[in-house]
Design brief:
The complex is a heterodimer. By secondary structure, chain A is mainly β. Chain A is built from no helices and eleven strands. In chain A, strands 2, 4, 5, 6, 9, 10 and 11 form a seven-stranded mixed beta sheet that branches. In chain A, strands 1-3-8-7 form a four-stranded antiparallel beta sheet, with no helix packed on it. Chain A is globular, with a radius of gyration of 14 Å. By secondary structure, chain B is an all-beta fold. Chain B is built from no helices and twelve strands. The termini of chain B are far apart. The chains are: A mainly beta, B mainly beta. Chains A and B meet through strand 5 and strand 10 of A and strand 5, strand 6, strand 10 and strand 11 of B.
Amino acid sequence: DAGVTQSPTHLIKTRGQQVTLRCSPKSGHDTVSWYQQALGQGPQFIFQYYEEEERQRGNFPDRFSGHQFPNYSSELNVNALLLGDSALYLCASSFNLPGLSSGANVLTFGAGSRLTVL
Amino acid sequence: AQSVTQLDSQVPVFEEAPVELRCNYSSSVSVYLFWYVQYPNQGLQLLLKYLSGSTLVESINGFEAEFNKSQTSFHLRKPSVHISDTAEYFCAVSDRGDYKLSFGAGTTVTVRA
């Protein structure tokens, strides 16, 4: 059973460019969250998608956008890249248990996409 | 908003010695608490979690953590570490009713023979 799959694993962009990162959730999971992990820091929540809608957003600018498809896979798009966007981008999936607060759901993380902005 | 503090950024320890990783969070509202582990070039994996009930929770590989509401802490302990426990450990907190996890900055544990 495949876990969370992310692509690409590594990529290099220049300032001002745009990037799209992709995530396939673990089989059976319907919720996808994205996190940014800068070097030496813990992951920071970007947003969460459920039923193809953005359910909650962290403190990130509108340059960060996402999408969830009917098959539950997801994309993270970042426009107008800045040097400070260089980080490991983590996708995490979970199953939304009815009656249980989402915060209690255990996340399964992918290995991440490492973005370097030059 | 929650903030999570992991008090030690690096913890070197000898094999078979005990280890404790400290974690404090900011808000005393009802929370869910987690420890995740990240091995090199791998995604984060759940180590253990506290949702409700007994304040002492255990993992299958010998780690345990205790929820202390009055001190807003969730420290992680293992009585005897192995070389394979070398990894980065993250404490994470979610407010009940929230969808996101707030992570600490991580503690790198290096186990030496």
